[in-house]
Amino acid sequence: MTLKVDEVLSMVGGTGENSYAINNKIEERKFERPKSIVKQNVLELYSLLHPKNFVTADLGCSSGINAFMLFSEIMDGINESCDKLSLSPPEIHLFLNDLHGNDFNTVFRSLNAHKEKLMKEKGEKFLPFYPVGVPGSFFTRLFLKNTVHFMYSTLSVHWLSEVPRGLVSEDGVALNPGNIYISKTSPPIVPKLYFEQYKRDFTMFLKHRSDEMCSGGRMVLTYVGRSVPDHSESVGNTYIWSLISRALNEMVAKGAIKAKDVDTFNMPLYKPSMEEVKLVTEMEGSFDIVETEIMEPFWDLSTKIEDRVKNDNIKTGTVIAKEMRAVAESLLAAHFGEAIMDDLFSRLAEIIADHISKEKGKHVLFTVAFQKRG
């Protein structure tokens, strides 16, 4: 069975126990640098172009409060630029993009509360904004040519448009048995195939954004990457997916699922190195990279620093497993079936708790700022 990513992938919707909105509220202090990079790039962009109306787009907005996490910085950047130039501030057209299966209802139900919060925080510096939902893959054209001033994306661009070609042969032979992503046991051809897919996808992503963006427009992307050239698990780059593979293989041993089902499932995502990002950007040719930042936060991105339960690995494992369920359940359920999800993520919570008792897991997150050439 071929996984059709654009039809299946979505964060768990609604506001229930397993939803993305509840389990992936990124603790904002962990994103201070991405926020400051967004603000600075908006300030510089507006100072150069000072458009009468400002068009911005969130690519992969999902359904939680994360959809609005960076928007305040956009307002601040515009206001600061207008103050320096003695200009009247613009109105803002905000495009919220995600795949067709995204829970846009939850996004827009939370809009009024977010708008009221912004009005209270900004006072007379609050800028009128007009949000529009834009369903569709960001590997396709989404907006009119040369109309968008600023684009941003948080924890989305590491997704691929499809599972890398060739990981499972036409007659069902798997190249990466027992794994659902690149691991220490993967043969060399596996990361090569993943990179080839990433190269195709990110090239197309940049081409479409270039077509849609005004001359001199800016884009800031924050996503999961890796800090080393190879795909070593020692720094946690791929290890979270290896732990999910371990949980699935435990279920194979118990007879709950078939080994072939694990062997033929591969995650449609790629964690590039910064060198790979720069290589593909230069090859595509539409953008210059103007700033980069690398962060290594702990796996439990949603836990406030002061609320982190010291030495309670079981609770922390449960938190991280819920975060991963909200992100990956749609893909896993499409392949393995809904019936095993509770068992799978219960096992994962225990496995993560054991892992972090020995080694604290960390993400490697990139923030990269781009400027359109020409």
What value does the Rg take, in angstroms? 21 Å
Counted by DSSP, the helix tally is 12
Whole-Å distance between the termini?
Answer: 44 Å
Numbering strands along the chain, what is their spatial order in the largest sheet? 3-2-1-4-5-7-6
Approximately what portion of the residues adopt beta-strand conformation? Answer: 15-25%
Low-confidence stretches: none
How many β-strand runs?
A: 7
Coarse morphology:
globular
Mean pLDDT: 89
Biggest sheet architecture = 7 strands, mixed
What series of H and E elements makes up the topology? HHHEHEHHEEHEHHHEHHE
Derived structural class = alpha/beta
Helix content: 40-55%
Description:
The longest helix has 24 residues, at 189-212. The chain has 374 residues and is α/β, with parallel strands linked by helices. Helix 3 (32-49) packs parallel to helix 4 (71-85) and helix 8 (239-253) packs across helix 12 (341-356). The mean pLDDT is 89. It has a 7-stranded mixed beta sheet, with helices on both faces. The chain has 12 helices and 7 strands. It is globular and about 70 Å long.
